[in-house]
């Protein structure tokens, strides 16, 4: 058992691998580690963890990944924030150089959010160790196993969005 106030070893496995309980334990541990990284990045950048979630949404759902440019309204709905909290978040991100806001060429009322090049550079530098360990962790798996793992994670993410969307 780990000492108090220390997370369990990430390599520790639940007793019955392959069970729903074992997956739940492993996913909680992984989520905890991701959250600690997000909080560290937020702290280093003088941001709130919610600001980092906004950056992730702008990056993951934007043109770099085949989506439409993010708008403040879509981001507000995605993060379940009030309009005032969304404005404060975007102001912090823009002041810190992580995003830029542009007006749509056809409809000037529409604002698009873009991850700024300097913001991408800073995030890439901070999260490079995560990319490295992810690549290392994937090494022993075949292409078919990687596709299965990717399918599982994709399906789980879709189900989680469904749960989130059902909440009042």
Question: What's a concise summary of this model?
Answer:
The protein has 168 residues and is mainly alpha-helical.
Report the order of strands and helices.
HHHHEEHH
CATH topology-level fold name: Arc Repressor Mutant, subunit A
Structural class, please? mainly alpha
Mean pLDDT over the full residue set: 89
How many strands in all? 2
Secondary structure: helix percent: 55-70%
**Main β-sheet description:** 2 strands, antiparallel
Domain HTH marR-type: 20-158
Organism: Streptomyces xiamenensis
GO molecular function, one term: DNA-binding transcription factor activity
InterPro entries: HTH_MarR-typ, MarR/SlyA-like, WH-like_DNA-bd_sf, WH_DNA-bd_sf
Description of the molecule:
With 168 residues, this protein is mainly alpha-helical. It has a single domain, classed as Winged helix-like DNA-binding domain superfamily/Winged helix DNA-binding domain (Arc Repressor Mutant, subunit A). Helix content is 62%, strand content 6%. It contains six helices and two strands, in the order H-H-H-H-E-E-H-H. Strands 1-2 form a two-stranded antiparallel ribbon. Strand 1 and strand 2 form a beta hairpin. Helix 1 crosses helix 2, helix 2 packs across helix 4 and helix 3 crosses helix 4. The termini are far apart.
Question: What's the layout of helices and strands?
Answer:
Blueprint: H1 20-45, H2 49-60, H3 72-79, H4 83-95, E1 99-103, E2 111-115, H5 117-138, H6 143-166
Antiparallel strand pairs: 1-2
Helix pairs in contact: 1-2, 2-4, 3-4
